[in-house]
Every structure is written in C-alpha cells, then in structure tokens.
UniProtKB/TrEMBL annotation:
Coiled coil: none annotated. PANTHER family: RBR FAMILY RING FINGER AND IBR DOMAIN-CONTAINING. Pfam families: IBR (PF01485), IBR_1 (PF22191), KH_DEAH11 (PF24471), zf-C3HC4_2 (PF13923). Its EC number is 2.3.2.31. SMART domains: IBR (SM00647), RING (SM00184). It is an enzyme of class 2 (transferase). It comes from Paramuricea clavata. One of its GO terms (molecular function) is helicase activity. This is RBR-type E3 ubiquitin transferase. The keyword Manganese does not apply. PROSITE patterns: TRIAD, ZF_RING_1, ZF_RING_2. It comes from the Eukaryota.
Length: 375
C-alpha cells in the first residue's frame, strides 16, 4: 500500500515538459491570446500548467492521464497557433477619423475585451504603430474587423484643425487630461500614453520593444521609470521588470534564461561546455547549449545527436571504438578492455571471449589455446 501511494505521489509531482523550439510560437503562447488558451486547457484538465518566464518550456503537473491529455491539447494548440489568422487594422490613414484610437479604447475598453466578446479572437491596440491587431480563427477575425470598421463609421470624420502643440501624438486629437513625459516634455492624453506603455504586457515580445520611445515626430526620447510609476498600477510595475528582461533576452546570444519553468535566473553562455548549477532552482545544465549536463560528451552537438534515434547507433559505435569497448557476443553486456591479453571473460554471463575475433569458449584454457592461431 505504501509503495502504491508513493508511486502515485511521484506521478503527481513529476512534471511533463513541453519544449517550444519555435521562438515565434513561444512568443505567441506568451501573448494574451496564447495565455488565454493555455488557461482554458488548465481549467478543463484538472492539472497545473506552468510556463517559463520566457515561454520556451511548459511544465504540466497532475496525474498521468491528465498530463497526457493536457500535453495533447497543448500540442494541438501549438499546431492551431501556426494556422491562426493575423490581421492589422491601420488607423493612420487620412480617411480615418481624428481621435479614432482614443474613441476605440473608450468604447471597447482599454483591453478591447468588449470588442472580442463571444469571439474566438484576441485583440490588442498597438499604440506605437497605431493599429488594432487581431489574431484568432479566420471567421472570428473577420467578424471583429467588421465590428471595428462599423464603429469607425459612426465617428465624425473631422479634419485636424487643432494646433499641433496641443495634439496628442497617439490619437492626433486635442490632448485630454494631459500627461507630460519626464525627459522630453511632450504632452499626451493620459489614457493614450497609459495604453501605449501598457502595450508591452499583451503584445508579442520583440528585442526592440524597450526602451519605449516618445511618439512625437523626430523625438527619440525614452520613457523612464518615473513615467511608468506615474501611469501604471503597482502590479504592472512588477511585471514590467520581467517583460523588459524578456525583451532583452530575445535574440541575445550571451545570456539565456534558466530552462526551468517559473525560474527567473539568467546565466551567461560560455563558448565551451560546462556544468552550471542554478542557484535559484538547483537544476544542473550545460552553460553552452542549455541542455542537460553531458559530461560523457565533449561536444554539445554530439550530445544532441545522441538523443536522435537515427544518430544513436553511429555515435555509440564511434564511442565504443575510442573506448575499446564491445558487446559480449553472448549476452550483449558492455565489456571494456583496458589492459592484458586477448582473453576476456564477461562479468555477467561468464563467457570466455577472444577479444581479437570475438569467438566464444567454454573455458579459459580453450580460449588461450585458440589465441596464438587467431587471425
């Protein structure tokens, strides 16, 4: 009974890990749309799903059956994400109403939840590019696009008569409830600049996302900590540090995140293989390739190839030749010859073997009589 309970506990605490090789898919899984889909799987399957801070590993904890079902669902989600429709509604065109961005945010909410309510679609407002970005099922994306276009038709298509000094760089309308950026002094509508700074939480991460710069034409001044603290919520500020680190690590070859999901440690990549013990989660891995420790393999490439069934036999034969190791011709256990004559005895089946030709003998005497005449 104790062993049975122990086995069940071990099963529950041993996670199933899904590694996301495609960086683009990893970023999609970390987007609002991806997180929503993963959470739906978690809620249905009675399991716990942990995503690494950088989206490349998903760890599933639960019973064997639940983990298997969840893994299947996640793999299906990854496949579906590769097929989802991506569409951008450009709000910069001259035929768009002045203040369209601000009005869309007012009408549908700053997270645009009202826009996609009931649809298998995710929407976000990318302020810097002045676009509504949609991703989801093709039909749902089309429905939401039509909803946006119909709403824009209800807005007055007035010409810009405002003084450019009072014009919000985001919505191009007169500044409402102004906020002035700390470094450059340019004024924005508080709602517009807040939405712009908040975009980093739901947008697909990229290396050039930070620092976020002023959107006034010709101004490259970055937003700084004082701006974020003044406009964002406390919990958003905490998350901001993590998001900025994610963006820094995208495409960075010198620093990588610890491969353990929910571990926030970052390590420096080394040009030669070496064991690294993460001080936060205690996992050990190779500092060059980030994979499991592989002291038996001098090169990371050889270790990765060893996990490929099509390469394992070749690598084994190469290693056996270098190590002067062979399989026993009777029981196949590995035998290493490091010294002595051509007579070897298997430690498992006790067979007497001529190392030179591989012949088997019942006694050592017979083997010794054979060796001088072995070709």
């Amino acid at each position: 009974v104790v062993q049975t309970i122990g086995a069940r506990v071990a099963d529950l605490v041993t996670p199933e890990v899904v590694v996301i090789e495609d960086a683009g898919i990893a970023r999609l899984l970390s987007s609002g749309y991806g997180r929503t889909k993963v959470n739906q799987i978690q809620n249905k399957k009675n399991i716990i799903i942990q995503r690494s801070n950088f989206g490349r590993r998903i760890q599933i904890t639960g019973s064997s059956e639940a983990k298997l079902r969840a893994r299947t669902q996640i793999e299906k989600l990854i496949e579906d994400l590769q097929k989802t429709t991506h569409l951008e509604i450009d709000l910069r065109h001259s035929d768009r109403p002045v203040g369209a961005i601000r009005e869309i945010l007012k009408h549908f909410g700053k997270d645009l939840n009202k826009l996609v309510e009931g649809e298998d679609c995710q929407a976000s407002m990318e302020i810097r590019r002045r676009k509504v970005v949609l991703r989801g099922a093709k039909e749902a994306v089309s429905q939401v696009q039509n909803k946006v276009e119909e709403f824009l038709k209800t807005l007055p298509n007035s010409q810009r008569e405002t003084n450019v000094d009072n014009e919000c760089p985001v919505c191009f309308a007169d500044v409402e409830d102004p906020y002035v950026l700390t470094l450059c002094g340019h004024a924005y509508c508080s709602a517009c600049i807040t939405q712009y700074l908040s975009n980093v939480f739901d947008s697909v991460k990229s290396a050039d996302m930070f620092p976020q710069k002023c959107m006034c034409e010709g101004c490259e001044s970055p937003s700084i900590k004082e701006d974020y603290v003044a406009l964002l919520k406390t919990e958003q500020i905490q998350k901001l540090y993590q998001v900025s680190l994610e963006c820094f690590l995208i495409g960075n070859t010198s620093y990588k995140p610890c491969p353990t999901p929910d571990c926030s440690w970052v390590y420096e990549v080394t040009p030669i293989p070496g064991v690294f013990a993460c001080p936060e989660c205690d996992i050990r891995f190779c500092k060059k390739c980030g994979d499991s420790t592989h002291e038996m393999f001098e090169a990371c490439e050889a270790f990765k190839a060893s996990k490929d069934p099509s390469q394992s036999d070749r690598l084994y034969n190469e290693w056996a030749a270098r190590a002067n190791t062979r399989k026993c011709p009777r029981c196949s256990v590995l035998i290493e010859k490091n010294a002595g004559c051509e007579h070897m005895q298997c430690t498992q089946c006790k067979a007497h073997i001529c190392w030179k030709c591989g012949s088997l003998f019942e006694t050592s005497e017979k083997c010794y009589r054979h060796i001088p005449f072995c070709n």
